[in-house]
Design a protein that fits this description.
Layout lengths: L2 H23 L10 H12 L19 H12 L2 E5 L4 E4 L23 E5 L2 H10 L3 E8 L5 E6 L5 E6 L1
Parallel strand pairs: 3-6
Antiparallel strand pairs: 1-2, 4-5, 5-6
């Protein structure tokens, strides 16, 4: 079989597979229609059979010239565990049930710069004291914001802007 014949067979098989997928969910087949996948997904959602992938975690990566030193700072201030490090990266964690949350923003609110990460704590005053004791500069707050949160910003030893929120 020539390369041309092989390419033709592969293209035909792909087209037949696509046609079968359309037939299964009851959508009319239109070859080379780029919105086909979108229609398949929309129809599957309506039928209650679409199962999107599940997000299990979102991880913030802070830039640091010395990741281990920065990890030790966060370990000291927030009581986090340091279960793994490889020199160029360090993992900090805490065994706790948490929801997955991702924010998109153009600023940090109240006219502030956008922090690279937000950390929720149960005692804002104690955390502020720990941040200051560790030698970091508090650059905003603590303040009770108009939208109901109490928070402050600090710059960590690597210069990252961090939002600490009383949660």
């Amino acid at each position: 079989m020539s390369e041309e014949d092989l390419r033709y067979d592969e293209a035909r098989a792909a087209q037949e597979t696509e046609a079968l997928a359309f037939a299964i969910i009851g959508v009319s087949y239109e070859p080379q229609n780029h919105s086909a996948v979108g229609r398949i997904v929309a129809r599957a959602r309506l039928m209650g059979v679409y199962q999107p992938m599940a997000v299990t975690r979102i991880v913030a990566n802070l830039t640091a010239p010395d990741p281990i030193a920065l990890a030790k700072f966060y370990q000291e201030v927030f009581g986090l565990d340091l279960p793994f490090e490889m020199g160029w990266i360090a993992f900090l964690s805490k065994n706790a049930t948490q929801k997955i949350e991702l924010h998109t923003a153009s600023e940090g609110g109240s006219g502030t710069d956008l922090p690279v990460i937000s950390i929720g704590v149960d005692d804002l005053d104690a955390t502020e004291a720990a941040v200051r004791e560790a030698g970091a500069d508090v650059v905003y707050g603590p303040v009770a914001e108009a939208w109901g949160l109490r928070r402050f910003f600090f710059r960590d030893p690597a210069g990252n802007l961090v939002n600490v929120v009383d949660s």
